[in-house]
């Protein structure tokens, strides 16, 4: 990434955000309606230097922080939530590598090379149709062979790399992440993604049949396949706050559309726009106040996590719950205020509602979050 205005590479990339957001917003309705992958949008994010924002400085990257990341994703969420979600998963992979260096050096160097040449999306494939880990890695004497089916694989049709959670077929099975090139022989896409929202995110099923994985392309091979190992607290904080930022961006887009609508809409029984009616003004103020509170929580907590505040990282689950409740309520309130126009596909508000509801597929359920808070609180 090059610096063009004398600031840092991160600031320089973030300065390009408004143009990228406008481009995403212009194409979002088309991709949502047809459930087509937003290749042009991902390309724009990459060309602006945003898809590589969290590559660590030790790898020659800009080293974007969590505060930088949530700022970026909230803005992308205003343009196209699907592009924002796909960007988030790639940024999270690079950020985790910068902190922990889990990927083998040679494999990560290859990813970095591809990331310089063009968009290189990455995602971790964990979910399976039956819920239990059934994807199996078999040792063939020189490397591993993967066979299984993964579901809810965001970006499936365009992933450069797949980090596939699987168990070995050994007498005492081990689990780990097997790093697979997206164009490897034996990978097949089952285009089953037909969700209410985030329709352009291509969360299809991925079928793996005897896919070759080199011996040195495995991360964290240990333990048993009984359950998913608990995520590192810092990794969890990054994920929860990053994806919450996308939802907050969607809510901001809905609020901005609502303000324009009320300023332009003059019903037959009024002589001035709805924006002059006290009850509408009060409702808009309530939405604005709630979003300000959610933004302050998101950006403040992210900055504290960047400073190494462990207490802040431990609060990310509660923050995710509050931010997403706020974002969802704001969009629902906007739909209520606008009535029939808000639910018409002629306008983007109904898409914002579907996107903010569908984003829950990538987050821990409220029950899980609340149970964790209860256990901590009750000791």
Automatic annotation (TrEMBL):
Domain Acyl-CoA dehydrogenase/oxidase N-terminal: 24-88
CDD domains: ACAD
Record Gene3D superfamilies: Acyl-CoA dehydrogenase/oxidase, N-terminal domain, Butyryl-CoA Dehydrogenase, subunit A, domain 2, Butyryl-CoA Dehydrogenase, subunit A, domain 3
Pfam family, one: Acyl-CoA_dh_N
Transmembrane segments: none
Single GO molecular function: flavin adenine dinucleotide binding
Acyl-CoA dehydrogenase C-terminal domain boundaries: 242-364
Keywords, alphabetical: Flavoprotein, Oxidoreductase
Domain Acyl-CoA oxidase/dehydrogenase middle stretches: 134-211
Name assigned to this protein: Alkylation response protein AidB-like acyl-CoA dehydrogenase
Organism: Kitasatospora gansuensis
């Amino acid at each position: 990434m090059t610096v063009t205005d004398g600031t840092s590479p991160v600031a320089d990339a973030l300065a390009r955000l408004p143009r990228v957001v406008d481009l995403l917003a212009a194409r979002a309705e088309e991709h949502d309606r047809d459930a087509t992958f937003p290749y042009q949008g991902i390309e724009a994010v990459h060309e602006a230097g945003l898809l590589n924002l969290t590559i660590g400085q030790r790898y020659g990257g800009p080293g974007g922080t969590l505060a930088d990341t949530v700022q970026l994703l909230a803005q992308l969420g205003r343009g196209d939530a699907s592009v924002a979600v796909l960007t988030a998963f790639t940024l999270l992979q690079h950020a985790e590598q910068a902190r922990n260096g889990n990927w083998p050096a040679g494999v990560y160097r290859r990813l970095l090379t591809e990331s310089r040449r063009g968009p290189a999306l990455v995602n971790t494939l964990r979910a399976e149709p039956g819920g239990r880990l059934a994807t199996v890695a078999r040792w063939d004497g020189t490397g591993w062979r993967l066979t299984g089916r993964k579901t809810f694989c965001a970006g499936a049709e365009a992933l450069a790399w797949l980090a596939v959670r699987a168990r070995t077929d050994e007498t005492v099975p081990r689990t780990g992440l097997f790093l697979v090139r997206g164009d490897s022989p034996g990978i097949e896409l089952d285009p089953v993604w037909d969700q209410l929202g985030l329709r352009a995110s291509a969360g299809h099923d991925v079928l793996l049949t005897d896919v070759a994985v080199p011996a040195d392309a495995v991360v964290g091979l240990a333990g048993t396949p009984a359950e998913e190992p608990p995520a590192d607290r810092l990794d969890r904080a990054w994920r929860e706050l990053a994806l919450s930022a996308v939802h907050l961006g969607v809510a901001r887009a809905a609020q901005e559309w609502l303000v324009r609508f009320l300023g332009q809409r003059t019903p037959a029984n009024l002589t001035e726009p709805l924006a002059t009616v006290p009850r509408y003004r009060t409702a808009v103020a309530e939405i604005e106040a709630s979003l300000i509170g959610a933004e302050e929580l998101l950006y403040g907590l992210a900055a504290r996590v960047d400073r190494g505040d462990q207490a802040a990282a431990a609060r990310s689950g509660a923050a995710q719950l509050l931010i997403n409740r706020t974002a969802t309520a704001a969009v629902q309130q906007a739909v209520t205020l606008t009535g029939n126009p808000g639910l018409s596909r002629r306008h983007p508000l109904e898409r914002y509602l579907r996107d903010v509801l569908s984003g829950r597929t990538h987050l821990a359920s409220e029950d899980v979050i609340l149970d964790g808070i209860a256990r901590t609180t009750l000791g």
